[in-house]
Amino acid sequence: MKIGIGLPNHVAGVGGALVVEWARRAEQRGFDAVTTIDRLIYPSLDSVTTLALAAGATSTVGLVTNILLAPLYPPVLLAKQLATLSDASGSRLVLGVGVGARPDDYRGAGVEFDSRGAILDDAVTVWRRVWSGAPLDGETALCPAPVTIPVLFGGKGKPTLRRVATLGDGWAGGAVRDYETQASFAEQIRTRWLDAGRTGRPLMQTSVNFTLGDDSVVAEGRRNLGAYYGNKPEYAALNVADMVDTPADAHGTVQRYRDMGFDQLLFHPSVASLDQVDRLADAVL
Questions:
Q1: Cα distance between residue 144 and residue 268, in whole Å
Q2: Separate counts of helices (H) and strands (E) for the chain
Q3: Which is nearest to 184 in space by CA: 209, 207, 161, 152?
Q4: Domain extents in the chain
Q5: What confidence score (pLDDT) does residue 49 get?
Q6: b/e per residue, 261-279, with b = 16+ CB within 10 A?
Q7: Where in the numbering of this chain does the Luciferase-like domain appear (predicted)?
Q8: Which residues contact 11 (CB under 8 A, 6 or more apart)?
């Protein structure tokens, strides 16, 4: 199982220079991937731009959106941006996408919240066409060459099962550890995949929030998580309570998801302190 670490782009007020240094350190310490969390109405860094910065600062580490709120973005423009990032990074990009649950992000983007599922379905078709090199208007292609970008869908409902089985390459699980539920949903995905006549197998990715350090650092991480998910108090409390906060907990989480057959586990930091890269590496690599 591959192990990735999040870039702290979602921590309020983080600077762009730090994510560049963070990506370099993550690659040096042997993480398989760096990843971002997406949100619009929050003082955070843009997900795709952050990964572009990381791509320029590294040469081998994977680049993952976990997840990108794809319906917020014009699909043709996003397809070209992602194709550019994939090409420039040497095909290191994995696209985790979902619809999210925050109406404020959609109001800010001028996108209809209740239509976000249908928008995502249509967008995937547009992306695939753009990435294939087929023209969208006249005879002009938008990409310099065909681009292959794996698409993973987040969520735990029937639309996610359908999207993974018919449109995508795998599943991006959420950051709260509910091992029995996740194992059951993963099995449903595998069944639907085969029922749809797909060959091979779906990629299985999941994630967890973490902060490692003394009590004051851990407390800061919990505050940051609570603020990030503050628009949904019950969900915020769930994330705060579930946050990985010891090396033993981190190591045990890796073992559980490895035993469950997941392909990749991503650790999202809750504090933007560079020593978190080393603390996590020492615990799980």
A1: 33
A2: 11, 8
A3: 161
A4: 2-284
A5: 98
A6: ebbbbbbbbbbbbeebbeb
A7: 1-243
A8: 44, 224, 228, 269, 270, 271, 272
Give the residue among 27, 111, 29 at the shortest CA–CA distance from 61.
27
Residue 182 sits at the vertex; the CA angle it makes with 229 and 251, to the nearest 5 degrees, is 80
How big is the chain, counted in residues?
285
DSSP for 137-183, written as a single string: BTTB-SSSS-----EEEE-SSHHHHHHHHHT-SEEE--SS--HHHHH
Q: What is the tens place of the pLDDT at every residue in 61-70?
A: 999 999 999 9
Q: Which CATH class is domain 2-284?
A: alpha beta
Q: Which two tokens stand for residue 263?
A: 């392909």
For residues 95 and 151, the answer to whether their CB atoms sit within 8 Å is: yes
Q: Are strands 93-98 and 170-172 parallel, antiparallel or unpaired?
A: unpaired
Strands (E), the chain: 2-6, 33-36, 62-69, 93-98, 151-154, 170-172, 203-210, 264-269
Which amino acid is located at 184 in the chain? S
Closest by Cα among 27, 82, 91 to 57 = 27
